[in-house]
Amino acid sequence: MSLKKTYSFQIQPQFVDFQFRATMSSLGDILLTTAQFNADDNGFGLRRLNEMDCSWVLTRMAIEMNRFPEQYENIEVETWVEEVGRANTTRNFCIRDAKGEIIGNACSVWVFFDMKTRRAKDLQTLEGIHDFANGEEGLIDKPIKLGAVDGDEYDGFKVKYSDIDINGHVNSIRYIQWISDCFSLSCYRKYQVKRFEINYVHEMLYGDFVEIVGMKVEDNDFRFEIKKDDKIACRARVVLIPNTSTDL
Amino acid sequence: MSLKKTYSFQIQPQFVDFQFRATMSSLGDILLTTAQFNADDNGFGLRRLNEMDCSWVLTRMAIEMNRFPEQYENIEVETWVEEVGRANTTRNFCIRDAKGEIIGNACSVWVFFDMKTRRAKDLQTLEGIHDFANGEEGLIDKPIKLGAVDGDEYDGFKVKYSDIDINGHVNSIRYIQWISDCFSLSCYRKYQVKRFEINYVHEMLYGDFVEIVGMKVEDNDFRFEIKKDDKIACRARVVLIPNTSTDL
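^ Those are the sequences you sent over. The predicted structure of the assembly is below.
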């Protein structure tokens, strides 16, 4: 049995930005959908975990894009579980275009979460899941623990109905969108995101006030922090490179 | 040749709200995707129109839901062109669940738009499109012209990167999301949207300040207006009914 599996997607019009390219948040969405499809195929999907009063919680993710797929492009996302530790499990992704060229890679880290105790649960207790870890590293650096950000306020607003997922928390993808929205259209005309890295720290709830602070640590290397009151909701790093599109 | 065609969708986790139900904006998205698939199948899709420096512009839409499909539900959207006038064309939708029961209906009105002159174009000049109009009415009232709203300010914020589509305007679906976000989680626990009706008036651009005003005209009948400065971007009507879910 092969431990790597590939899922196909088409970049729908609602996935693209003003430059016809998939947004980072829609790519994040595709990756989470891929993870869910593959976890279901392996027998460890959310539906099965929910029956055990457990869930998967995404704690870290890194996405690196060489090229952003455009509207109507077909992409293939290959995914596999690299390792299953006691505290978390690492799932990698490789994104290819229709020609088979690698256009991006991603790495995600997940915690096995007990919804009754509201705590992480030892993955040793999830029988059979270790058989799906193939030990194969991804093609990019794993997401690391990001440090505190002492930056300028970029944005502030309240969490709304459409931000909330079935767990009553802000949807993981929304944070990617909020951080992507810290850059202007003219920035996206000149640059594209090479690496987007995120640490999820505390969940945000309906009505919470979102405060986004950011700082430039080096040319083209930005750090962000999303806070509610004194708590950190998430931290992120965004590395830009010049826009590779030739027609701009 | 049948002039009605059906397209299948599955309600993905990112389409649902905190009650596991598809949001109105994700249903709007599915309807626009259906319209696009069917227009492509008929030979009058956006890609072909774009080659002629033309486009479809959605001017009005009404969606009525008897029941909101839940996460992972498979739905079928049947669509057909009712009529093609000189100024606009009407496309209807009927949404069924896996059992074949009708769970919702929608009606959309589109203008054939000349991107060079930035004006509507006579549909008489689009040869062959009239063959696709079957004259069959939809099962709900057509969207009408909504009147001015003299209401309270519900929300205000700036248009951001992720709101902008390939035409450089705010995405049509985003307005549905913004209006849906005017209701609280506790409102959605008690009520659900029976009818969502929207008129698109003026496009909004990156950096525009969005002001949302709303008023209750009758019990469970709300009107909204999204404005930028003195211009109306869109008007909407939202009719609520008690939440039909039995488990709440």
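The longest strand of chain B covers residues 102-114. The longest helix of chain B spans residues 24-42.

Shout if you want it in another format.
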